[in-house]
Amino acid sequence: MFKEMFRRHAAGVAIITVNYNGHPFGFTATSVASLSAEPPRFTFNMARSSSSWPAVANSAYIGVHMLGLENRELADRFARTRNRFEGDHWAEGPHGVPILKDVAGWLVGKVQMRLSFENNAVVVVEVVDGEVGGNGSPLLYHSGAYSQPVPLDYEI
Amino acid sequence: MFKEMFRRHAAGVAIITVNYNGHPFGFTATSVASLSAEPPRFTFNMARSSSSWPAVANSAYIGVHMLGLENRELADRFARTRNRFEGDHWAEGPHGVPILKDVAGWLVGKVQMRLSFENNAVVVVEVVDGEVGGNGSPLLYHSGAYSQPVPLDYEI
Q1: Which residue(s) pair with B44 in the sheet?
Q2: Which one of A139, B55, B74, B139 is separated from B65 by 20 to 30 angstroms, measured CA to CA?
Q3: pTM for the whole thing?
């Protein structure tokens, strides 16, 4: 029942990245949420079984990338594959954090707190840098598939 | 820049409710995210300046309602008005938590932790009950307006 409820809850798609001992790590997340605008802080949740957890647990800075419709392949790549950083689709950004190119925007922030609940964790980040990208439509995840938002008065 | 980034980040719309000393409280939230499926836990973020914060801060149980397209007026009511519980659109549910009728689904859970960051807080909830509602399309909030998700291959 819980899973069905969150299948019904549409979410924006983001990619979290982190530099750990000189190596880039990253994963697709649908739990990114604003915490406060002043100071600029956001949260995300993740499994501590994730291959990126040791990097998130031990690095001071983290990046988040908001994805647009044109970033669907990037979302898949960071959700399902292992060769996430092979290629020139990224570069080192502020504080060494891997920054993905051609996304809707990115933020880099300092981790304020990691709160573990058994096998999962809530991470709180305070933003220190960022850049807004192209003004496209955001990529959504809903009911096990990607989708796009359209206005309510648009008949489908 | 931070605000623009989160304007670009589409989110599902939910309503949080709580019973505090016999009085119903509630507000519209776009920060609800799954934390883990086993045990079923979710998180949400809120301002401590919210009129609902004293209720959230001092109650053991909390409800979350996933909204569908047909719940747009409910979303507005719990975001902008004061008479949120005048009417028969709700009833007391498990542990006294106010349950809104005709939503996409609701969950009631026990608060595991409230973590304050200056004027805002992260709340972690472990689900103890719930009910899935009608199978409609979820209500989204994006770029300052409500919207609906449609598949990527749908030409708009």
Answers
A1: B123
A2: A139
A3: 0.96
> What are the residues facing A33 on neighbouring strands?
A43
Q: What is the largest CA-CA distance in chain B?
A: 51
- DSSP state, A68? B
A147: closest CA of chain B, how far (Å):
4
Selected for mutation to probe chain B from A28, A34, A38 (highest B CB count within 10 Å) is: A34
> Mean pLDDT, chain A, as a whole number?
96
pLDDT score, position B154: 77
Distance in angstroms (rounded) separating the CA atoms of residues B55 and A48? 31
Instruction: Identify all chain A residues contacting B125, using CB atoms and an 8 Å cutoff.
Output: none
- A contacts of B43 (beta carbons < 8 Å): 31, 33, 43, 45, 122
Spatial CB neighbours of B2, under 8 Å, sequence gap ≥ 6: A34, A37, A40, A107, A127, A130
- 3-state SS class at B86: coil
Asked whether the beta carbons of residue B12 and residue A11 sit closer than 8 angstroms, the reply is yes
Q: Which chain A residue is nearest to residue B30, measuring alpha carbons? A: A33
Cβ–Cβ under 8 Å, residues B18 and B61: yes
- Strand, helix or coil at B62? strand
Q: What is the pLDDT of residues B32-78, one digit of tens each?
A: 999 999 999 999 999 999 999 999 999 999 999 999 999 999 999 99
CA B42 to chain centre: 11
Nearest-Cα distance to chain A for B2, in Å, is 6
What is the bridge-based pairing of β-strands B105-117 and B120-132?
antiparallel
From chain B, pick out residues whose CB is under 8 angstroms from the CB of A113: 115
- The pair of structure tokens assigned to B19 is 């019973």
